[in-house]
């Protein structure tokens, strides 16, 4: 049995373009039409944007939201131009106020379970975007302390510089911002990062930035003895397929092998049969359920949901860490049922 699933993208209008630095632009976005809960999101999640392209397979890129769902502000994504960056260069060169963009609903697991904790945040360059969302949300809706260690090449490359100064003045007893500038201090190294982190080893840690920077921070924290479940790292990989293109979801009927699955999505609950050997996302698509997804490769976390009951196995996983897995999070595009009954939610 096969169903051709056509992804219906949401549309957002660009209502403002803010030039943060010489090579980083923030797009302020407003949903078009009636969208309901489609654009509800958690601090640290991302949007997938369609990039106009004549390339085979199209083009799409994931950009973190730097806005806070706890504050009365519009959706914002910040895009930093990168050398030979197909998506970032197109956005920085072409997107202006009034443009309408196609996007998929917010997704991602780089988000705190509670905003009432004390946080230690590490950001490198444009990796500050999801970290900024967490920082602002924790200050607005939480009651804990927040420390940000922010690495950049020089002072002129600091994204959100003025906003961070303003937030520090508004929350002098709760927010501490520590800048690391390459032109002054050189590249961050493990001993230096360890020394900065040492006073905050009891906190929840979120890390985003270039790969070597994140690896350096993670190794420093491991040396300090921080438990892995308190260290969260955001890693993006380029999408190998076009998430906006129609997808044929094939579900094979395997006699005598079927799981009963109950799915909670957008505050509605559906029960259906999950034929053995099939991936959860394909089963949901064939049932006409508008489950979120993007890459279908186990590499982007857009299809993340949580197992409330039962057991599954994943055929591939490049984004969920051990802490995510321990909390029951799975990738629907890679999940195959193991137990006879499974309960899944997308609403947590």
Automatic annotation (TrEMBL):
Cofactor: FAD
Pfam family for this entry, one: FAD_binding_6
Gene Ontology terms for molecular function: 2 iron, 2 sulfur cluster binding; flavin adenine dinucleotide binding; metal ion binding; oxidoreductase activity
Domain FAD-binding FR-type, first and last residues per copy: 7-113
2Fe-2S ferredoxin-type domain mapped to chain residues: 259-348
Name of the protein: Ferredoxin--NADP reductase
The keyword Translocase appears for this protein: no
CDD domains according to UniProt: fer2, PA_degradation_oxidoreductase_like
UniProt keyword terms in alphabetical order: 2Fe-2S, FAD, Flavoprotein, Iron, Iron-sulfur, Metal-binding, Oxidoreductase
Source organism of the structure: Arthrobacter sunyaminii
Keyword DNA-binding: no
PROSITE patterns: 2FE2S_FER_1, 2FE2S_FER_2, FAD_FR
